[in-house]
Every structure is written in structure tokens, then in C-alpha cells.
Amino acid sequence: MYRMGILAALRSKQTKATVGVMITASHNPEEDNGVKLVEPMGEMLVPDWERYATWMANSSDEDLDSTVKKVTKEAEVDLSVPANVFIARDTRPSSVSLAQSLKDGVTAMESQLTDYGLLSTPQLHYMVRCYNTKQAYGQHTEQGYYKKLAHAFQSLHKLNDVGGGDYSNQILLDGANGVGALKVMQFLNHMESSILNITVCNDGSNGKLNEMCGADYVKVQQKPSSGMPSQVAVKCVSFDGDADRIVYFYTDTNQCFHLLDGDKIATLIAGYIQELLTQSGLELNLGLVQTAYANGSSTKYVSETLKVPVACVNTGVKHLHHKAQEFDIGVYFEANGHGTVLYSKNAEEKILQACEDPSLSKDQQKSATVLKHFVDLTNQTVGDALSDLLLVETILWAKRWTVDTWNASYTDLPNRQLKVKVADRTAVQTTDAERQCTRPAGLQDAINTLIANYQSARSFVRPSGTEDVVRVYAEAATREQADKLAYEVAGKVYDLTNGVGDRPVAPSS
Fold this sequence. Notes:
alpha/beta, Alpha-D-Glucose-1,6-Bisphosphate, Chain A, domain 3, four-stranded mixed beta sheet
């Protein structure tokens, strides 16, 4: 943390702008902790500086001074330039002491800092962008963040108030015993109480952060979080520990669990924006960005039914964010629920002009106005669970949809994820946005042969970025087929990569 404080100060000097540092380990267990660095426009750290961060982290104490000089020289940092760093932390017990080490690193570089205390990760990203845009994006305060979202959401609620339908404003929210629970409750103080009826569960008063709760738990375990009351057909939402991921879920009258993950959220948002563009007459380039983990049914639904272009990139939000910038309006989500919408300067200007364009009909102007508030409701810096929740609820209200109606837009193919321990993860290399394996020789051919045995099947493998494991993804027409394919592919990975431990074998049914 001390070293990352130094690095943040160097990045601030190099960009001649304010940067941010968030102390969090996101969806990881409470005993873990980590750090996320924030770029001047609220985006994640650029790849070159990820490399410098690795240098700093791996440097010995004796070599730290020379490592700092090496970074300063290679990045062409002018040390005479003043630096300013915003910092914040999540609710982990370790975050307080780690924040002090971070501050020590910043002050060691004779740099200014602002400590925001407890914030969600997306809130800090938002603050940094607001400050660097001289408030054009919003006020760089927590109250300013709430006010901007509340105003946009309530404006959209009134614009879409046409009556009728089965929409319910009742939500059970799983706060993962993290900072998101606190921030939702604070946000609700800025809202008219009749618009949203949110009951916050796992609010941190009992239970450990992310333990048997949170978005990652719901996504991976395919079941509701503990600490939530069992209610049939009630709309449920789960945040992760630092509130940059969100998934929806519910249990139907047959006690069947249904998950609406990042794919469902992305398709809902992309479809709604496309409707607004059509209704307003605006001609803007809309696209959806996914990773290989996106369910095949979602990709087919977007490209064939919604007719929205789909791009696939390597796993990691930074890759999705970068690709989404190539569109006038780029929607991106990982299946785990991390995502947002990006609007180009050209798109925002055209939307604002259309709101007041006398050559357009009243209905066209109204659709453009809805889109303008939808832009304001979006945290364009990074995935934001609260902002994304409000975007989804805006759309469900406008369409008068229940969560069941939303879920019925398309049916996910059953899928299974596994991981195989290997001696060296670099033995596996991929191409085509990680969908095709180029090494070891013969592995992709073996995967193709296995896929051919199943209906609507797809499978890929990719090495972990942090540990010596290879991740396996498989989907097929039935749960049984998806499970069987996943274990068969995992077995091939084990055989061809010097697998460690026991060879993967499907559990007996």
C-alpha cells in the first residue's frame, strides 16, 4: 500500500491530474485486501502503469529507491509537478490501517491527498472524473453523486409514467455485508419513498463480508444468498463487496431459482437504448461488448433479435471498456455483473440537440429527453451496482415488466465452469478473444471433437491470470450435457498440460 501510494503520486504528476486509489478486494473473502488505481477520467489504470505497479510491488526494500527512479525515468515523470490523490476504502477491518500506509506513500512524495473514507469503488471513480472535468460530470462529493442519480431516476420515472402493467417496485437487496449496503441506504434518503421499496439484507450488522452472500456467490453457486428471507416471485438483487457488480435473481412459484446476470442486464439495456434511438430518430452507432463467458443465447438474442452488433474481447473489464469506446454508444457487461454504458461526446451532443430540435415531433423529443436522463443515470467510469440497478428499474418501469417477463426474453443455455490445476499455466495459450486454444498442440482439436457430440454446445479454455490453473467453460442444450462436456474438456486439459493432483472426473449422478 505504501508503494502504491508512491506510484499514485507519480501517475498524478505524469498526467498532471488527480488520480484515485481504492483499498478493496472486491468480491474476495473479508480477510483478503487489495488496491485499485483510478485514472484521471475515472477509468482503470492503463497497462503500462500496471507494469510499473508490478515493478514496485516486487522490488526489495533496498532496491525501492532505484525502482522509483526507474519508473520516473521510463514514464518521463516531472517530479516538480504537484500531485493530488483521492483515496477511499471498503468496510474490511484491515482497510483502516492499510489506508494509513497508503497515505504515507502519497505524503512521502510530498503530494496532496483527500481521504473520502468509506466509499464504494464506483463512487471513488466518479469523484475522480468529476474533479478532473471541473464538475462538468457532476459534483465530486458523495452527496453530489446521490443527487445526480436521484434526479435522473425520478425524472425518468415521471416521463415513463403511463400507468398499468405488472411492474413491482419491491426489491430485496443483498448488500454482501459490504459498503454497498450502507451507500444504498444513504441514497434512498434522496429519493421519493414511493418510487422504490428496497429492503436491504446483509447490511453488515451481522455476518462477514462476501461470506455465503454477494453477487459472486449467487452467480457461482446458482442460489440465493444466505441472510435473505425466502419469498416467492420477489425481485432480488445482489451486490458484491465493493458494489461494482450486480446480479438479479428470483424464486418462482415452483421453487425454481432464476438468475439474471450481466448478460441479461446488458441485453435489457441495449434493447431499450435501441428503442429510444429508433423512437427519437437519432442515428448513432450502438454496440454490445461481451467476453467468451457470455451465454451463447444472449449473443444470439442480441445479434439476431435485437439486431445490435456484438463484439467479443478478452476477459477483463479493461478490455470491454476499451472496445466499448469504439461505438457512439457502447454497452458492456461481464457475465459476473460488472458493466456499464459509454457514450461518446458526439452521442451526448446529438442527444442534447434532439431534445430541443423543433423539426422533431413531440414524441421524438420525449424519447431523446428520456435518453438524456438515461445518460445522466449511468456511471460511465466503471461498473456501478447502484447505477446499474437504477438503469434496470427504469427500463422495467417503462415496459411495465415483472422480473419474470424480463427473464423470458431469452433462455440461457445451461453452462458449467471448472478449473484444472496445472504445473505451468503458460502452457496454455489462446487467440480469438480466448475462444480458440493455440497451445498445447492438439488441445483445440480435442475440444472440437468433444463439442461435436452435443447439441448447441460450446466450450473454451483459458489460463488464469494469477494462479497455475486453467479455467474451463462449457455450455450445451441440457444441464447434463453441459456438465459432461465441461469435465471431458477438463480431462483433456489435464492430460495435455501436466495436470497437478487428481484428474477431473464428473461426480456420479
